[in-house]
Amino acid sequence: MFLWCEKRKIVEKIKVGAVSYLNTKPLLYGIKRSGVLDKIDLIEQYPSSIAAMLLENKIDVGLVPVAIIPKLKEVFIVTDICIGANDAVASVCLFSEVPIEQVERVLLDYQSKTSINLFKVLIKEYWKKEVVIEDAKPGYQQDIEGTTAGVVIGDRAFEQRAISSYIYDLAEAWKDHTGLPFVFAAWVANKPLPADFIVEFNEANQYGLLHLDEVITENPYPLYDLKKYYTKDISYHLTDDKRKGLALFLEKLKEV
User: Fold this and answer.
1) Domains recognised in the chain with CATH numbers
2) Residue 93 in contact with residue 99, Cβ under 8 Å?
3) CA gap 155, 99 in Å, rounded
4) Residue 234: left if φ>0, alpha if ψ -120 to 50, beta else—which one?
5) CB 184 within 8 A of CB 66
6) Which of 17, 111, 114, 129 could form a Cys-Cys staple with 62, CB 3.0–4.6 A?
7) What was the pLDDT predicted at 205?
8) Does this model's pTM top 0.90?
9) Three-point CA angle 13, 55, 234, nearest 5°
10) DSSP 71-133
């Protein structure tokens, strides 16, 4: 994170990491069209990579899987915006060729710690089933066959929806299990950030959510209805109920 130099009028930029999935396009739309963009170095990657950067202090704030929160020395949730769901989310699912009762092995997506930990909680507490769990590598979707299922997240989940016979939405299962919404990712800083920056950054995120039609036009996607995704499936505001859901999930992580 950079500070103003009064003599040179130069400011070092705040390093910001963001997820490069469809679900973040509205947030990035606002950030890239606001004055805040001049104050940051923006890095786009998949969730677990952004999480690693925040843990290693390579960025100052990131839209990170919430499962990393217990690993941070300091935690500051810096906006009222998150990647959450009040019910089914569509893009974080367990995919299988057989009903879950027949699943024997599950491959876990390498791109997000939150989603795979959510699955571990659900398989134990909700489905109450023992399976062989394996960390997956790129291209693992082709191994989802027979009694081998897979947790697939993000844009690749939309592709898998057209292939797999059985789809179990993890956010929907969490809501059925706990009665609470789920938070997959939040804007988390590992150090205090300037108050004026936080206000401006929050407003930039909100701006994108007010211009969803433009976001959709800018990101044509034939595999899924993005209007539905952005207005029905994803729930972007970090409400009190979502904070309760987040707190419960972090408590359950201690037993995973």
Assistant:
1) 4-86+181-253 (3.40.190.10), 92-178 (3.40.190.10)
2) no
3) 23
4) beta
5) yes
6) 17
7) 96
8) yes
9) 80
10) G-SS-EEEEEEEEEESS--SSEEEEESS-GGG--EEEEPTT-HHHHHHHHHHHHHTS----EE
